[in-house]
């Protein structure tokens, strides 16, 4: 039963990010953040669950890639942009710089 509770958020994350009926790029950063938080060991975890969480955490880092565009999309979502705990400060600053550059590029193309 504990294993199911560890794996259940991965099923939900897959469904949220695999949708083809609505945009989901802005959900990549918060989804990964939620999974990372979920995989943090807690005092009540058994040794097996700790090992499982550790393995899943390393696999998450290896296979769940987040790029600058994901961070920019998160910043552009009004519901998510003011949640500083979703992304490290450096990523937030890089995303803001990229967004400014994208806007400048668009302005230059229009002129």
What report would you give on this structure?
With 111 residues, the chain is mainly α. The chain has one domain (2-110). 68% of the residues lie in helices and 0% in strands. The protein has helices at 2-17, 28-38, 47-63, 68-76, 89-110. Helix 1 (2-17) runs antiparallel to helix 2 and helix 4 packs across helix 5. It is elongated and about 60 Å long. The model has no long low-confidence stretch (mean pLDDT 91).
Structural Rg? 17 Å
Domain unit count: 1
The portion of residues assigned to helices is: 55-70%
Order of helices and strands: HHHHH
Give the end-to-end Cα distance, rounded to a whole number of Å. 61 Å
* Main structural class: mainly alpha
Which whole number gives the mean pLDDT?
91
Number of β-strand runs: 0
Question: Any key phrases for this structure?
Answer:
111 residues; mainly alpha; elongated; single chain; 5 helices
What's the short story on this structure?
With 111 residues, the protein is an all-alpha fold. It has helices at 2-17, 28-38, 47-63, 68-76, 89-110. It is built from five helices and no strands.
SSE blueprint and pairings:
Elements: H1 2-17, H2 28-38, H3 47-63, H4 68-76, H5 89-110
Helix pairs in contact: 1-2, 4-5
């Amino acid at each position: 039963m504990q294993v199911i509770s560890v794996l259940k958020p991965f099923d939900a994350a897959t469904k949220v990010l695999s949708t083809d009926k609505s945009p989901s790029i802005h959900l990549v950063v918060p989804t990964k953040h939620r999974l990372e938080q979920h995989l943090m060991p807690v005092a009540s975890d058994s040794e097996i669950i700790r090992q499982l969480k550790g393995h899943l955490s390393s696999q998450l880092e290896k296979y769940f890639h987040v790029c600058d565009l994901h961070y920019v999309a998160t910043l552009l979502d009004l519901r998510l942009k003011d949640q500083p705990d979703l992304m490290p400060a450096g990523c937030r600053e890089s995303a803001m710089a990229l967004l400014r550059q994208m806007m400048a590029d668009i302005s230059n193309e229009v002129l």
